[in-house]
Amino acid sequence: MKEGKEKLWWQNLRRPEIEERAEECDIAILPVGAVEQHGQHLPTGEDSFHAMDIAERVAEKTGAMLLPCPWYGTHPSMHLKYTGTIPLRFETFKNLLVDVVEGASESGFNKFVILNCHGQEWAIPPAVQELGRKGYFVVAPTLWEIAKSKFREVLDTYFMHAGEAETSLGLYIVPEYVDMDVAEGEEKEAVLDGKWFAKPSDVIEDRIPWFAVTLTPEYKELEFGSKGFPKEGTAEKGEKIVGAAVDWLVELLEEIKEKYPPGTKPDIAP
Ligand SMILES: [Zn+2]
């Protein structure tokens, strides 16, 4: 939470303030990341910091409410058992998303954006669909999907865990927690040839996504805990990625605001 932005966040508001905000704009953004080791050089809250920062910039431009970031996320099996990582079970995470949306809707919010900045994009659609069956309107963008073309323009490598992209975001968003003196990365052969799976931010055509296969646990195969090339990360690259994500999200929210004024939502209830 950046200084001067405190009032964008639900947890810092009093009840009458929340009522007022819902009357002005009833879109709420739930930023989600994780508590997870990010190599030797990035903080464990890295993904949550990305989500909160980007959400804050979008809320500032659109008037959307920011729901408290839960910090914890769920993880693919390859992340488990690494020092610094605290994973939620998939069901816990999915239920958390459902409960938060249901709870916030009781306070007058009708449209929800779940902004994901962690490798759990596979875990969120089941929550979205469960909420859809109950009549809630939810959109759930993931950072490397909405900024994919920008990633390819700005970065030399794909979005890899604690690699060039995340290091760039860390240097731009939370430089005070990054130590580039110990930034080391590595590339490892996957369990099968890499041609079968698309990496995050990669083009999926003729391949399956990275989360549709079980991979070797990172604590067993990585020496430094980061994949790819963290030394290539810069704050300037981070700024460009954040800018692209914010533009995408602001355009999305502006359309929702225009088509569905406060008190209304798309007719999606079954
Ligand atoms: Zn990360």
TrEMBL record:
It holds the Pfam family Creatininase. GO terms for molecular function: hydrolase activity, acting on carbon-nitrogen (but not peptide) bonds, in linear amides; metal ion binding. Keywords: Hydrolase, Metal-binding, Zinc. GO terms for biological process: riboflavin biosynthetic process. InterPro entries: Creatininase-like_sf (IPR024087), Creatininase/forma_Hydrolase (IPR003785). Its cofactor is Zn(2+). This is Creatinine amidohydrolase.
